[in-house]
Amino acid sequence: MENHEHEPHENHITSYTTLAKVLIGLLFLTFITVAVTGIHLGPLTVAVALIIACVKGGIVLTWFMHLKFELPVFRYMVLGVFLLFALIIIVTFFDYAFR
């Protein structure tokens, strides 16, 4: 019997249709980011823009860098980096708010 488990060096081909949908989603999120910066939300403007940027970064990692098809250990490492980034941003906002 053959073992059909996930191999780390397996090629993954994503269709052009899927990539086009991802591109449209990224362009839509870019439009939302630009629109949010035009609305006066006070200090939340930067926070909303950063949240949208994180979502866009996650989409790029998932589809264009093929993280979706990698081993779970790589996904956990990327998740750790995002959590560290979020922690640094939160600490920065607290520092700014309580000066």
Largest sheet: none
Number of helices: 3
Radius of gyration: 18 Å
Order of helices and strands: HHH
N-to-C terminal Cα separation, in Å? 66 Å
What descriptive keywords fit this protein?
single chain; mainly alpha
What report would you give on this structure?
The chain is mainly alpha-helical and 99 residues long. The protein has one domain. Helix content is 71%, strand content 0%. The chain is built from 3 helices and no strands. Helix 1 packs antiparallel against helix 2. The longest helix has 26 residues, at 72-97. The mean pLDDT is 86.
Sum this structure up briefly:
With 99 residues, the chain is mostly helical. It has helices at residues 16-38, 44-64, 72-97. It has one domain (16-97).
How are the secondary structure elements laid out?
Layout: H1 16-38, H2 44-64, H3 72-97
Helix pairs in contact: 1-2
